[in-house]
Predict the 3D structure of the following.
Amino acid sequence: MGIANPAIPLSPEQIAKNLADIAPAMLAEEAYAEASRCLFCYDAPCTRACPTSINVPEFIKRIAARNIVGAATTILDANLMGASCARACPTEVLCEGACVYNHEKAPPIQIGRLQRFATDPVVLSGKMVLSMAPPNGKKVAVVGSGPGGLAAAGELRRLGYAVTVYEAKDQPGGLNTFGIAPYKLTNADALAEAEYVRKMGVEFVLNTRVGKDISIDKVNDDYAAVVIAIGLGATAPLGITGESIDGVVGATEFIEQVRRDPAKVTVGKRVVVVGAGNTAIDAATEAKRLGADQVTILYRRSEKEKPCYEYEYMLAKKDGVVFQWLTAPVQVQAQRGAVSGLKCVKMKLGKPDASGRPAPEPIAGSEFNFACDMVIKSTGQQKLIELYRQVKGLVERGGKVQVNESMQTGNPKWFAVGDCVSGGKEVVNAAADGKRAAYGIHRMLFGDAAVPVRKPGPRLEKPAPHPPMPF
Ligand SMILES: Cc1cc2nc3c(=O)[nH]c(=O)nc-3n(C[C@H](O)[C@H](O)[C@H](O)COP(=O)(O)OP(=O)(O)OC[C@H]3O[C@@H](n4cnc5c(N)ncnc54)[C@H](O)[C@@H]3O)c2cc1C
Ligand code: SF4
């Protein structure tokens, strides 16, 4: 990455400090005290808010009873990605956001950190705790080893299938390994979770892109069913002049480099991030934590319409990231082949567009030049439609694979899960999809009666509100 005006490189110790865990592991006494605050609610709203329906009061009760392996079993039985979800989940808007304590203006139970306290000793040490059905003689392929693929693979293994996961990259884990901010989830922890699934008996074939290194027809012929869990592709272009200039990078590509080796990443002194979603926030905070003097997020709508979560916004502001609202890029400017600035235009908000939000419109004559040394594009990821087009009968709409309630595509043998279906959600949604697909495949091959009672929860878009507790 050629940057004309790079930030002063930080020492390895400073990088480690800047990227250290923002929600560190709980000490035992802290966890027991927190678990004892739980009211073990009936029809618990925290469980209803979890896309994987983890029985939260049950696992917290087991922690309170010092039964940590039992607590981990409750979590992993519902969600095999329990360890990464404990770190990456937006708990503020899911389980913790639904905790009854919020109605009392008291802090909600720290469910995410308790979940980490329970799952770490099991997942990171590879201790097998879940029941496994005997082999049923059928083989299933999973394409992609992100949380959606890993959850599907592990659940299929539990149901007795021989499972092979094909992964295009050199390491498993998908965005858990190459996307989530390192101060939430480390590479070692993401890889340990994938290793846990391998230890359950799942085979991994790395460096193998399905549709290129191995044909769709071969996968189709060799397996009883296939799960597509390929996520999304490269960062989408901004569609402005100068995007190929040195110093212009995509957010997901930049973040992958940070996850692979932050010491090898050069950031500019003055960085501009275009977009205000959660990925933009991650790119901005990571650039700041790697030594950039000034990081500015440009967003074409106003603060009110920003797509990132409120707590992510607060985190970026705490890191010193500056937000420039109602501003859109027009052209990347260069000097001697490297970024020297971004020509921008001021925007105003018009009538609502198809998304229901006010449409941003450029203000004529308001162009101005924003001096910077690096531009990080973060206005979405491309869809991997080349693969979808090779699967007979599969239907995609707007780049999202169309599935039924069992995650089955238009081709009955092919299922799809995670971001390639949703267009981009969270780790926990991909994990829930993976489990649902495993059960869907089991139902297709062995009938309804074969599906165990431990069914995944319904696909709720929003948890139902829960009445306040009578304290
Ligand atoms: C920068 C960033 C930060 C995020 N932060 C959070 C967060 O803090 N919390 C949260 O809950 N969610 C977060 N998310 C969202 C979350 O990471 C995704 O929703 C989740 O990883 C989706 O899982 P998946 O299995 O569908 O896809 P992915 O995790 O993207 O995995 C897909 C895998 O498929 C592989 N693949 C692709 N094509 C092929 C092929 N043809 N053959 C074989 N393998 C293939 C890819 O290499 C990849 O490993 C973030 C996303 C991004 C981009
Ligand atoms: S809502 Fe809060 S108090 Fe009630 S069971 Fe869940 S975590 Fe415990």
